[in-house]
Amino acid sequence: MQDRNKILLVAAENLLKKDEIEKVIALLDKLHPADAADIVSALPEDYQKRIFESWDIPHAADAFQEMDEREQVDIVDLLSTPLISDILEEMAADDVADLLGELDKRDAERILASMNREDAKEVLSLMQHKEDTAGGIMTPEFVALRKDMTAQESIELLREKAPSAETIYYVFIVNRENQLVGVISLRDLIIAKPDQRIEEIMNPDVIYVDVDTDQEEVARIMSRYDLLALPVVDHEHHLLGIVTIDDVVDVIEEEASEDIYRLGGVTREERLDSPAIESIRNRLPWMAFNLATAFLASSVVYLFQGSIAKLAILAVFMPIVAGMGGNMGTQTLTVTTRGIALGQLEFKEGIRVIARQVGIGIAIGASTGLLASLVAYFTGVNPYLGLVLFLAMTINMGVAGLAGAGIPIALRLLNQDPALGSGVIVTTFTDVFGFLTFLGLATLMIRLLI
Question: C-alpha dihedral over 27, 32, 33, 34, to 10 degrees?
Answer without folding.
Answer: -120
